[in-house]
Please model this.
Amino acid sequence: MEKSKDELLDGMMELTPADPFPDEVFYKIFEIEDIVERTRYIEGMKTRARQLKRISEFNSTLKAFFQDYAQKMKETGNKTAFTGQPVELECGQWRANDLGVTMQRFDNKGMPVIVNACTHPILPMEILKNVDTGDERIRLSYFKYGTWNQVTVGRDVCADNNSIVKVLSKIGIEVTTENAKSLVKYISDCVGYNPAKLSPKRSINRLGWAGNEFMPYAQDIVYDGDEEFDSIYHNIGQGGDYEIWKEHCGALRKNKIIRLAFAASAASVVISLVNALPFVFHIWSGESGTGKTVAIMAAMSIWGNPKMGGLVKTMDVTQYYLTKSAAFLHSIPFAGDELQTIKDRWTTNFDKLIYRVTEGIMRGQGKASGGVKETMTWSNSFLFTGEEPITKQNSRAGSKNRVIEIEVEENLIEDGNHTVSVLTANYGHAGKILVEYLQNTEAKKLREEYKRYFDAMCNLDTTEKQAMAMACILLADRILTEVIFTDEEPLRIKDIKTYLRSANEVDVAERSYQAVLNWIAKNPVRFQNPNGTDSLNKGEVWGRIDEDEEHQEKPPVAVINKDVLCEFLEKAGFDYAAVSKKWEAKDRIQRNSQGKYIHNTRVYGIKANYIKLNMEPGADEEGFMDIEEEQARLPFD
Model:
C-alpha cells in the first residue's frame, strides 16, 4: 500500500547512517500538486535529514532526482490540454491548460519555483516555409476574450525576448519583459517536441506562378500574404455561372479593342513562361462614357470579381503601393483606372511610371532595423485607362516601346451598367481554365509559338519590345480561342497592325527631329532677315534657312542658334546631347571643319554659335511594309 506523506517522514527517522534514503520519499514530491503543501513536505524531509546529520547527502540526492525528473519530462512529458485547442502538442515540462502555461522547476536549494510563460492558452499550430525566400514563419493560436485567435509572425520574433514583446503584446497576448524569456522557451520546446505535427508547410505571400504551381489555385501551398492585399486576394476566384459569363463576354469580344484587352489580361500569365518583359496596355479616350473602364473590368473578370476597388483599382495611389501591388499579383495583371488622376505627380510625361512598372523589380530598400528588404519582382501585364495617351511626344523610346496604346473613338459597350452587373456576378472561371492549360503544356512549345509571332513582327517596321508585347497578346488570344471562346478564330498580325508603333514613332531622335521641323514651320518669320525691306520679323532672330538654288536636289539647311535650339528641345522634353549624335547617323546634322557640330558663323550679320540641320527627312521613313505580303509568309496564316 502506498504510504502517506506523514508516514514517509516518520520513516526517515528510523534510518541509520548506513541506510540510503528511500526513492519513494523523493517520488512523492512530484505527486503533490499544491505548491504550499509540496514546500512543507520538502522542508519536513530536510528537517529529518538534519536530525540524522545527513543534510548534504540528502540535498545531493534531491538534486539528482530533480534532474532525472526533468529529463523524463522532456522525453515523456506533458501535453497541451487547452479546451478547444486546434492541435494537441507535446510540451515537455510545461503545464499548458486553460489557466495558462507554467512550468515547475527547482532552485539550487531544491525549492520549487513556478515559471510563468503566459496567463492564457497559447501554442504554435503551424510552421510556414516561404517557397521564394526559404524564410520560416510560425502561426500561433491563442485564447483571449472568449475565443481562439491566430497570428502569424516570423520565426525570429518568437526567438527573441525583445521582439516577442514588441510584436505579440500589440495584439493582446500577455507577454511582458518578465515572462518573455519563458514564452520564447515554451514555443521553442513545442516546436522541438513535435517535429511531425509541426513539419514546415510550403507557403507564399503573393499570387501567380511558383514553379509549375499557381496561386491561388495551388493545393499544397499555404497562402500567407499581408492584410493590405486582402481586398485583392479575396476577389480572386470563381463566382456565379461560367456559361453566363462566357456568353456575355463572347458578345463583348466582337469589338476588337475589348478582345485585345482580354488577350492582354490573359497574356500576363504567359510573360514569364516565354521569358518576355512586363508591358502596359493602355486604352484612352478624350471623352467619358466610351466604356473603356468596363472593357478593363471585362478583361479582369477572367481572374475574379472585377469590381472597382477589388481587381480594378483607381490609379490615384502612391508609386510604392502600385509596385508593391504588382509584386503581390506577380503573374496576374494589374488593372488601373483613370490614369489622369496621378498626372500632377509627374512632370512632363508618364515615362517614370512606365519604366517603374515594366522593369519588373522593386527598388532596393533598407530596413529600419538594418539590412536590406527582400527585393520584390513581378512578370505581369498592366491594364490602364485614361482620358489621354500615356506616352507623349517627348516620351523616351524606352517608354513608348513598352506600351500598347489604343485610342477609343466610339463606344465600346452599348449597356455598360448591365455588363458590370453580369461581370460582378459571374467571374473567375476562365483564369483557372487558362492556368490548367498552361500547366499541361510544355514551356518549350509555348516559347516556340511565341517566337514565331515575335520574329514575324520584327520583320515589320516596329521595335523588338513592341513585338515582344504584341507577341504575348497574340499568343494569349490564340490560347483563349482554344480553351474558352472556341467558336472564334485567333487574331492574326494583320488584325493588330494599326496598334504597333513604327520604329520612327519610337525613335526619340526621329521624334525630336520632326519636332524641330514642325517648330521651324510654325515660326518661319524667326528665320527671316530682319533688315529686309519686306521682312515681317521685328523681333528675335533664331537663324536662317539656306537653300541651294543651283542644286535643288540638295535639302535646305536650317542654320539655328544653338541656345535657341537647346531651349526648345529642353522645353519639349528632349536632350540635345542625346539626340545630336543620332541625327548625324541619319545625316541630319552637319559638322564643321574641326568635326564639331557647332558652327561659329554669321546670320544676317550677327556672329554666334549655330547648328546646321538638313531639313528633309532621310530615305529610311518607309513606314510599315505591306502587311498582306508579310502575312502570307507567316507560319500560322
Observations:
- Confidence is low (pLDDT under 50) at residues 368-372, 618-637.
- The CA atoms of residues 270 and 595 lie 50 Å apart.
